[in-house]
Amino acid sequence: MKTIRIETTNHAYPVLIGSKIINQLPKLLIQTGISQKTKILIISDENVAPLYLQVVVDQLNKFDAISYVVPAGDVSKAIGEVEKIITYAIQHGLDRSSVILALGGGVIGDLAGFVASIYMRGIRYVQCPTTILAHDSSVGGKVGINHALGKNLIGSFYQPQFVLYDTSFLTTLPTREVRSGLVEVLKHGLIADRQFVDWLEKNADSLLHLDQEAVSYALKQGIKIKADIVMEDEKEQGIRAILNFGHTLGHVIETLSNYQYLHGEAVAIGMFFAAKLAAKLGWLSKEEEAFYQHLLQKFKCKTSIPKEYDTNQMMNIMLRDKKFKNGQIRMVLPIAIGQVKIEQNIDPKFIFETLNELKR
């Protein structure tokens, strides 16, 4: 079992990674000061619950645990679902000492963490990720839900008590979910660690086939990169914004597709768009731009925008994004493999032209 320590201004917690470590859950809860009399609400979704909810419930047989299952997918990251969960929590007697446990992927982590952050002005919560994608969302304390006009526009910064990452849960992931999750691993390398990017390129097949040793190493490295950034800038006032690499366009594609594109699938297109834009601005060489496409395609990712998406509409959605600041679209752009910078003064015509160039 590997452990990474996350230190923020007001809170420190461990991220534990390993195969078949869910049996550590009761001990970790007690070590965190959560007694067996504490009411625990497990939040999961319709995909994960049939596979792993009973496994977790069995581990919590000496605790006062209840569960709530939501529909799978981004449809559940909505204010209406939050209200339903809060109603259920009130009806079942959750109080300020209670705990929420997120059992699922990024959607569940975001949703459950957001509910925990606002229920009775904030109660404790724990992350038990079941997807590769959640290695990103489960660490760092960003929690939230979507609005009809954009993704993640309602949310909080709220850190978990700990993250328990049992990699044996990943073996039931559909192939699309595996690819989608690995995109966020690629993102971490591309923003901060060229050597890790080279390792990812060489080990693409092993990762796509869920080799446990390769996956554990990739998750550890990806989480470590994110942890270092979060510990430096918890509330995204500066460097943490580089973790949004690929997300400016990625969120647009998710919104326009009504979330038919998985998060990682959309972010992959967003990262290549950023690379192409950076090359157009002279910050990235053509060889490096080509490497981006090669790397993403090696992980079976699309790099083009659906031709039916209206460019003006894409621009308008970008202007509603959280990263829109002082009248301009703020973007994370690569300047080398493993290095990016935040740029706000981009001529909109370059963005418009590059969007059109990526349509297929």
Automatic annotation (TrEMBL):
> What is this enzyme's catalytic activity, as reactions?
7-phospho-2-dehydro-3-deoxy-D-arabino-heptonate = 3-dehydroquinate + phosphate
Q: What is this protein called?
A: 3-dehydroquinate synthase
Tell me where on the tree of life, at the top rank, the source sits: Bacteria
Gene Ontology BP annotations: amino acid biosynthetic process; aromatic amino acid family biosynthetic process; chorismate biosynthetic process
CDD domains in UniProt:
DHQS (cd08195)
Gene that this sequence comes from: aroB
Its keywords, alphabetically, are: Amino-acid biosynthesis, Aromatic amino acid biosynthesis, Cobalt, Cytoplasm, Lyase, Membrane, Metal-binding, NAD, Nucleotide-binding, Transmembrane, Transmembrane helix, Zinc
Locate the residues binding Zn(2+).
184, 247, 263
Taxonomic lineage of this organism?
Bacteria, Bacillati, Bacillota, Bacilli, Bacillales
**Which species expresses this protein natively?**
Tepidibacillus decaturensis
